[in-house]
Amino acid sequence: MRVICAALAEERGLEPTQEIIKRLGGWPVVEGTDWDDGSFSWRDMVYKFRKEGFSVDYLIDFSINIDLKNSTTRVIDLDQASLGLARVYLVKGLEDKLVREYHTYQVDLAVIFGADKERAEKEMLEALEFEVKLANVSFKPT
């Protein structure tokens, strides 16, 4: 079965992922000058992500959990979002080797999906700088 799945994945290549990205509204770094900031809606994106079965806790982790003080009730739990790279590395900043490699990985993915390399380097650096700022204001995991 794994051989069939691998062969199918190899045959289809990026197409399934590109179709999903398109349904989600596109990826600005790949869309380049065709990206329309004015038509982007964070709320719509959340609905689309949920419809596709993806997590939506990018800025805020929202969940409903059992109340630890009363297991017969549920509570709304708001928490900080997960980061793409562990906080312990991101707080070291852009001088950290692993953080630089993370940036290279981001750029490589964008280019594989069709982004212009220079644009990808610039925009992924901006995204990484934002993620570093989030890491620096987030709480250490307990």
Helix content percent band:
40-55%
Number of helices: 7
Morphology call: globular
Which parts are unreliable, with pLDDT below 50 for 5 consecutive residues or more? none
Mean pLDDT reading = 89
Structural class of the secondary elements? alpha+beta
Query: End-to-end distance, in Å?
Result: 40 Å
Sheet with the most strands? 2 strands, antiparallel
Radius of gyration, CA atoms, in whole angstroms: 18 Å
The total beta strand count reads 2
Sheet with most strands: strand arrangement: 1-2
Portion in beta strands: 5-15%
Order of helices and strands: HHHHEEHHH
Structure description:
There is one protein chain. This protein has 142 residues and is of the alpha+beta class. The protein has 7 helices and 2 strands. It has helices at 2-12, 15-24, 28-31, 42-52, 87-90, 97-112, 117-137, and strands spanning 60-67, 70-80. A two-stranded antiparallel ribbon has the order 1-2. α6 (97-112) packs across α7 (117-137). The termini are far apart.
Short description:
This protein is an alpha+beta fold and about 140 residues long.
